[in-house]
Amino acid sequence: MTRRTQHRTPPDSAPARLQSRGHSRELAVEARGLTKSYGTRRAVDGVSLGIRRGEVFGLLGSNGAGKTSTVEMIAGLRSPDAGEVRILGLNPWRDRTAVRQILGVQLQEAMLHGSLTCRELVRLYRSFYPDPLGTDQALSMVELTDKASTRFDDLSGGQMQRLSIALALVGDPSVVILDELTTGLDPRARRRIWALIESLQDRTVLLVSHAMDEVETLCDRLAILDAGQIIAEGTPEQIRQKAGADTLEDAFVTLTGGPITTEEDDDEH
Ligand SMILES: Nc1ncnc2c1ncn2[C@@H]1O[C@H](COP(=O)(O)OP(=O)(O)OP(=O)(O)O)[C@@H](O)[C@H]1O
Question: How far is C-alpha 219 from the chain's CA centre?
């Protein structure tokens, strides 16, 4: 990750992004045939993904589509029933220690020790990595310098979210998994975090998001997950074309089957 403290404004065209990020064809993250059931419900059903080095890859899908289960399996936090994962050639289960040093994870429900202060949490997470960013730098990049001595439990929801992003990035990891990156952040904070993600030169990012503007801005490619299966994959432009839609949001609605229903809604019928 870049160690600049100044973040540039995200470029607004995909070609500029591709050039500036300089990703290669080499795969940084490979998932093959990932499957996970909870009881009789198959939440993830044979998901295969290849994310290139240096790429920002978006994972989209309706509520309950299986996104978090998928990224947790990729991160080695949830065991798959079937399938395999490689992160820079490493198996997140077998090579757990090595993977922890190259992977940063921001999960939807950060399970952090609430009585620790922001500074203590950042120091704790720094200790997992061989060459982390500085504590002050990590706090300042998410604008939490003035909250350094505040306990996690005393932060606002958006501040907790920003801290969890700092903890995912503090190790200067080669691969970053971000689940619902900016959910709950105010517009200014969202832009700030987008610029931060754009500044991660040569880092590979897997981003789960419901925010189509975020995906359009940040992602080189994306996949749409529906009922545990990938139903579309490509650049935002390719996805729009596949759906015959003008916007990614329209494409999403078309490809996931018309009016947006959650899986919970479906259960009621
Ligand atoms: N620990 C669990 N035990 C039982 N069922 C679970 C568990 N975790 C997830 N599920 C179920 O698996 C399905 C997929 O959940 P998952 O959290 O992966 O979806 P998601 O796409 O991330 O959803 P959202 O957009 O709402 O966060 C849902 O039906 C959910 O209820």
Answer: 10
ipTM entry: 0.97
- Angle at Cα 194 formed by Cα 78 and Cα 30, nearest 5°? 35
Spatial neighbors of 140 by CB under 8 A, at least 6 apart, are 5
- Cβ(206)–Cβ(71) below 8 Å: yes
- The residue behind tokens 């619902």 is 180
The string of pLDDT tens digits covering residues 108-160 is 666 778 889 999 999 999 999 999 999 999 999 999 999 999 999 999 999 99
Closest Cα to atom 27 of ligand 1: 63
Classified by CATH at the fold level, domain 27-256 comes out as Rossmann fold (3.40.50)
Determine which residue's CA is closest to atom 6 belonging to ligand 1: 38
Instruction: Give the confidence band of 30 by pLDDT, cuts at 50, 70, 90.
Output: very high
Q: Which of 40, 62, 68 to mutate to test the pocket of ligand 1 (most atoms within 8 A of CB)?
A: 68
Q: Ligand 1 pocket by C-beta < 6 Å: which residues?
A: 38, 41, 43, 61, 63-69, 263
Q: Tell which phi-psi region holds residue 45, choosing left (phi > 0), alpha (psi between -120 and 50) or beta.
A: beta
Tens of pLDDT, residue by residue over 46-58, are 999 999 999 999 9
SS3 124: helix
Atom of ligand 1 nearest to the CA of 180: 27
Length of the chain: 269
Distance 227 CA to ligand 1 centre (A): 10
- DSSP assignment of 164-229 equals HHHHHHTT--SEEEEESTTTT--HHHHHHHHHHHHT-TT-EEEEE-S-HHHHHHH-SEEEEEETTE
For 34, list phi and psi in degrees, rounded to 5: -65, 130
pTM of the predicted structure, to 2 decimals: 0.86
